[in-house]
């Protein structure tokens, strides 16, 4: 496996490896740069299931060779202005990956059955060719988001549009996208800029893969998957969403069976304190606010969000980080919030990292103000939590669009780090989504239905019928085994 250099990619690859181990006796090697390998090692140590069949291989990489600060090996470690250099630097992993693949082939007397690579590592198709095996791409997000992301990068449809609204090739004509749903990098892209020069060739190479694994379930986004299959024209196996088992099959309760799964990160609050606090609140009354593992918002936006929350009077748990322009590792300063905000104790502020799975799995949590990262979206919906969307980067705006238009479980409050956010709008949307008798209750009901579909798709018990995502995994395994070279 060749995951991209971001924690949000490494962890789903690890989850995929674990899922493959549930039904096969394959030995899986995950290859990443030295610091990312150490990160994976700590995540495996925290949850060592099947670790004897999991190998971690370190690919030599020196960030200083690529005009990056020393020891920069993931998107989390690099300032926004330098992320593009990290993307371009990631292509330098091709040579060591080729070397590793050749040495595994030599040691085993046959090539690996398959190389599963990140969509951003399109060069992996060449590595697979070089050792005579197949390559399968894995997108850590859903079908709708993958289709939109690929098509927008390949076609840059907004460049040809006469207004802010545009159609995306592959999507139905009536399904309009808006330029505010594009990250500023894509909005400005013209095919010749550094972003296009990275994404366009890597995505095109990935489209030459033998097939595609998608971290989603067939039933939760039929339209997105139909669009994706028609657009990419190679087999798509929907093997997810890969969520912690306790989250899917434990009860939505106040207990502490969901306290694990921190992915090796230090929580900014004692998880038990979080649960005790949640236990003191009524069902579906709490708004959980998080912008994922690496994003944050602007300083003015942060202030308005805080004021809007106060005006709504709803209890909340907010994972806070310094606003844009400050070092994410800086101490959080109270001046970034209204005076006395924390002391008024309307909600809990969690610095840096929260036990998200446990919070979303608690019966008191009813709304999730989220950046709409795919893992967060799936975690929230699996627990029947309604979403207040604030997409920031990557394919998040497409996930938000899917949740608003196809699933009916999301209302957006803002987009991006530049949009104007007012306390009044925050208050309005929070009240709307938390109102059990109106739209909010309906959104939670629909989210609960999606949660049931997710559980059914991931169902393992044979007597109740294997879920569609487990059947897709079987199909994937059969397909790569039939394509595999016999041993020499
Ligand atoms: N997460 C967490 N605590 C936090 C922030 C994030 O446990 O304070 C986890 C969250 O549960 C999810 C992942 O980090 O599994 C974030 O992934 P997502 O795809 O939502 O967003 P990304 O971080 O890749 O933007």
UniProtKB/TrEMBL annotation:
SUPFAM superfamilies per UniProt: UDP-Glycosyltransferase/glycogen phosphorylase
Record InterPro entries: Glyco_transf_N, UDP_glucos_trans
PANTHER family: GLYCOSYLTRANSFERASE, UDP-GLYCOSYLTRANSFERASE 92A1-LIKE
GO molecular function terms noted in the UniProt entry: UDP-glucosyltransferase activity
Descriptive protein name: UDP-glucosyltransferase 73B2
Keywords for this protein: Flavonoid biosynthesis, Glycosyltransferase, Transferase
GO biological process: flavonoid biosynthetic process
Domain Glycosyltransferase N-terminal residue range list: 1-244
């Amino acid at each position: 496996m060749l995951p991209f250099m971001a924690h949000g990619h490494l962890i789903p690859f690890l989850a995929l490896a674990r899922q493959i181990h549930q039904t096969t006796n394959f030995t899986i090697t995950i290859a990443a740069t030295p610091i990312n390998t150490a990160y994976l090692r700590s995540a495996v140590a925290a949850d060592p299931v099947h670790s004897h069949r999991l190998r971690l291989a370190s690919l030599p990489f020196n960030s200083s060779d690529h005009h990056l600060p020393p020891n920069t090996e993931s998107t989390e470690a690099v300032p926004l202005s330098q992320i593009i250099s990290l993307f371009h630097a990631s292509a330098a992993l091709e040579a060591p990956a080729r070397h590793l693949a050749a040495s595994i082939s030599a040691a085993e007397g046959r090539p690996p059955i398959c190389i599963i690579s990140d969509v951003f590592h399109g060069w992996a198709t060449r590595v697979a060719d070089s050792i005579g095996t197949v390559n399968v791409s894995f997108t850590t997000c859903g079908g709708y988001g993958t289709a939109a992301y690929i098509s927008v990068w390949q076609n840059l449809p907004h460049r040809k549009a006469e207004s802010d609204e545009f159609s995306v090739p592959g999507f139905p004509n009536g399904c309009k996208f808006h330029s505010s749903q594009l990250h500023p990098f894509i909005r400005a892209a013209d095919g010749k800029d550094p972003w296009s020069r990275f994404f366009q060739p890597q995505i095109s190479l990935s489209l030459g893969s033998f097939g595609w694994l998608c971290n989603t379930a067939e039933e939760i986004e039929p339209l997105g998957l139909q669009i994706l299959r028609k657009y990419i024209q190679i087999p798509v196996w929907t093997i997810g969403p890969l969520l912690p088992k306790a989250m899917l099959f434990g009860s939505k309760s106040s207990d502490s069976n969901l306290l694990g799964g921190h992915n090796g990160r230090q929580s900014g609050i004692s998880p038990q304190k979080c649960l005790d606090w949640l236990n003191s609140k009524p069902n579906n009354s709490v708004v959980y606010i998080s912008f994922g593992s690496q994003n944050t918002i602007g300083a003015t936006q942060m202030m308005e969000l805080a004021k809007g929350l106060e005006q709504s009077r709803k209890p909340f748990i907010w994972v806070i980080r310094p606003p844009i322009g400050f070092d994410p590792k800086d101490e959080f300063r109270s001046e970034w919030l209204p005076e006395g905000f924390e002391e008024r104790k309307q909600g809990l502020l969690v610095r840096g990292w929260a036990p998200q799975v446990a919070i979303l799995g608690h019966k008191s949590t009813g709304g999730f103000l989220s950046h709409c990262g795919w893992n967060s979206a799936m975690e929230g919906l699996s627990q029947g939590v309604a979403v207040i969307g604030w997409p920031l980067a990557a394919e998040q705006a497409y996930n938000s669009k899917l949740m608003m238009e196809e699933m009916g479980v999301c209302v957006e409050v803002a987009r991006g780090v530049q949009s104007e956010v007012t306390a009044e709008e925050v208050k309005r949307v929070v009240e709307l989504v938390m109102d059990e008798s109106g739209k909010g209750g309906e959104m939670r009901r629909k989210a609960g239905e999606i949660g049931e579909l997710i559980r059914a798709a991931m169902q393992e018990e044979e007597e109740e019928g294997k879920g569609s995502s487990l059947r897709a995994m079987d199909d994937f395994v059969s397909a790569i085994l039939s394509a595999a070279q016999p041993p020499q």
